[in-house]
From TrEMBL:
GO terms for molecular function: fucose binding; metal ion binding. Belongs to the fucolectin family. GO terms for biological process: regulation of cellular defense response; regulation of complement activation, lectin pathway. This is C-type lectin domain-containing protein. It holds the Pfam family F5_F8_type_C_2. The keyword Calcium applies. Acts as a defensive agent. Recognizes blood group fucosylated oligosaccharides including A, B, H and Lewis B-type antigens. Does not recognize Lewis A antigen and has low affinity for monovalent haptens. It comes from Knipowitschia caucasica. The keyword Endoplasmic reticulum does not apply.
Length: 539
């Protein structure tokens, strides 16, 4: 209750956030409240405080599911203000959370806790552990969405995520009707051990205080915290642990992969040569992708540019890879702070600034690991957007080769069919087409392995002619294989998806909000079908 905002009942209520500067907005996620459904809410991106003709409407969320949360892609619309508008008379706009993601990020990480299994040290019936991962942020105990232990020494709560994940952050929602201080001092621990019920796993951070009914986000003190189990431990005698929601946002952990950057061709914007007694020491770009592991410049293991505007370094992996992680070794002899502010980018363009950002370096640690969520690209670069020197001593890149066929991406957001099409065409290549039994099997396996809850159907690039019965793929390939649940497909729904549980195809209303599948490349000799929508930019 205390973590939500609300307007009075009025005509066209609105809510707006000032981001502080212009951003290119990738996506907006909003969460509403049961009593005031947000059917018909519009999401706008404004360049100025006063909406005008340059304002961009990302779209409308017509129907909310359970929990009341909706996602809309904004396709890189640029602006400083994100505005939510609920058109109509005598309406009340109530919001419990708004999340805004810039284009430097892919689709926001999923909350993997909702598919986990929760246990706790004791239970004050009926407030069992699983209530804290039901996807609802209801904060009144009587609403049946909070866990509660009995009074005891050192109570704990744990969620098993099912497999190791690289945890970015943990969101904790406190009780809203009383007892806000009960969570004070709780430890968040993350790891792969069940020793002492998981309470001996590495410490992530502490919960200092969460006000009544609020949701706070906690980030681990060490980068790249990995584990299968997330614990909340409350040390002390006769303590009570009450949690109204625990959300864990994470990527699957990096498997054992080889360093694919070793001895690959590397370039940099310029090369510094330093005179050392009898000769020049070469600080070329190739130095940091060899086997040398020292952190000293005089051991001929480090690269260094001249002091110049926007210095950069780049390695060519020789082919597209799905990059799981980049490890960077900093200099130890001096100049370690030079790396702060550098961006690590991955993509298929030789132009540094055109590739997406994996991470920004924020400290001068000797060795840092950056997790890139299997970003695809042939080139990995490090660049700084200022006048400075770029220098470091080793770069390791871990990933797997992209198959010759198009990579398939299951997207965690739920969009209507046309918005899903635009999302895929912006971020990948197109909505997925399925051409054989083998590809159908791969789709079913990918859906079955999803780490987050999926809609009953998942969008494909299937579309029916508006004035006929012929179905076709938006990617331009011929419909030579089908897996229809009923054949011929029932009229009149013109958009197609695959069933989450049985893998069969069905014609669906294009307005449904479903997860969807994107493909990264076309088949040979295919030309994707042009599509135009009045509310979205042309693609």
């Amino acid at each position: 209750m205390g973590s939500c905002s609300a307007t009075t009942a009025q005509s066209d209520p609105w809510w707006k956030v000032d981001l502080g500067r212009n951003y290119k907005i990738n996506a907006v996620i909003i969460t509403g409240k049961d009593q005031h459904p947000l059917n018909g809410v519009e999401i706008w991106v404004d360049a100025s405080k006063t909406p005008n003709v340059t304002s961009f409407r990302c779209g409308v969320i017509p129907v909310f599911g359970e929990p009341l949360s909706g996602y809309l892609s904004c396709n890189g619309a640029e602006g400083q203000f994100v505005r939510l508008l609920l058109p109509g008379a005598n309406l009340k706009l109530e919001l419990c959370e708004v999340q805004v993601y810039s284009t430097d990020f892919a689709y926001p990480q999923p909350n993997v806790a909702v598919k986990g299994r929760a246990v706790q040290s004791s239970t004050l019936y009926p407030a069992e552990a699983h209530r804290a991962i039901d996807g609802r942020r209801d904060t009144f105990y009587t609403e049946g969405s909070c866990s509660h232990t009995a009074p005891q020494s050192d109570p704990w709560w744990r969620v098993d995520l099912g497999q190791p994940f690289i945890v970015s952050n943990v969101k904790v929602t406190n009780r809203g009707d009383c007892c806000a201080d009960r969570l004070d001092g709780a430890q968040i621990r993350i790891g792969n051990s069940l020793k002492n019920n998981g309470n001996d796993n590495p410490w992530c951070t502490n919960v200092t205080h969460i006000p009544l009914g609020n949701t706070f986000t906690f980030t681990c003190k060490s980068t790249g915290t990995t584990g299968r189990y997330v614990n909340l431990l409350l040390s002390g005698e006769m303590r009570i642990l009450t949690l109204c929601e625990v959300e864990v946002y994470a990527d699957p952990a990096v498997e054992a992969l080889s360093n694919i950057a070793n001895y690959k061709p590397a370039l940099q914007s310029s090369t510094k040569k330093v005179w050392d007694v009898f000769s020049f020491l070469d600080a070329g770009a190739h130095k940091v992708v060899q086997t040398c592991r020292t952190h000293r410049f005089d051991k001929l293991c480090c690269s260094q540019t001249h002091t110049w505007r926007n210095p950069w370094w780049r390695v060519d992996l020789g082919a597209p890879y799905r990059v799981s992680a980049v490890v960077l070794h900093n200099r130890h002899d001096c100049c370690s702070s030079y790396i702060i502010g550098a961006q690590i980018r991955i993509g298929n363009s030789r132009t540094i600034g055109q590739n997406p950002v994996c991470s920004t370096i924020t400290n001068a640690d000797l060795k840092q690991t950056f997790y890139c969520s299997e970003m695809e690209g042939q080139y990995v670069s490090v660049n700084i957007k200022e006048i400075t020197t770029l220098t470091f001593c080793r770069v390791e890149v871990y990933g797997s080769r992209v198959d010759r066929g198009p990579a398939v991406h299951l997207v965690g957001g739920r969009l209507c069919w046309s918005d899903a099409l635009f999302y895929c065409r912006r971020h990948h290549w197109d909505l997925l087409s399925v051409q054989s039994h083998d590809e159908q099997t791969q789709v079913e396996q990918l859906i079955a392995k999803s780490v987050y809850p999926l809609s009953e159907n998942v969008w494909l690039g299937l579309r029916r002619e508006l004035m006929g019965m012929r179905w076709f793929w938006m990617s331009g390939e011929a419909l030579t294989f089908n897996q229809w649940r009923l054949f011929p497909p029932l009229f009149p729904n013109p958009c197609g998806g695959v069933g989450r549980t049985d893998g069969l195809w069905s014609p669906l209303s294009c307005a449904e909000h479903n997860n969807f599948l994107c493909q990264s490349a076309p088949a040979q000799s295919s030309t994707k079908v042009y599509y135009y929508s009045s509310k979205m930019p042309r693609v």
